[in-house]
Fold this protein.
Amino acid sequence: MYIVNMPERSSKNRSDFNQVAKSIVDAATMAEVQANAIAEGKNPAAVILGRLGGLKGGKARAKKLSAKKRKDIAKSGAQARWHKNG
């Protein structure tokens, strides 16, 4: 009798084309963000962290505020828009 142990895969096989396409786009976008940061003389790691914080910032802030505070902020924003000197 001959017993062969199959090697375990180091990663999962992505058979869904949409997942593969998304990972390619994500990798390309991050590479572009890093390249732009280097060209502008910025730290690429700081740029990526800032981008991640910016993506969730507004939602997290709105979730943290009370309804009254959100209403006050919205009122002051509307007043500022309507009372512009143009």
User: Anything to note?
Assistant: The chain has three helices and no strands.
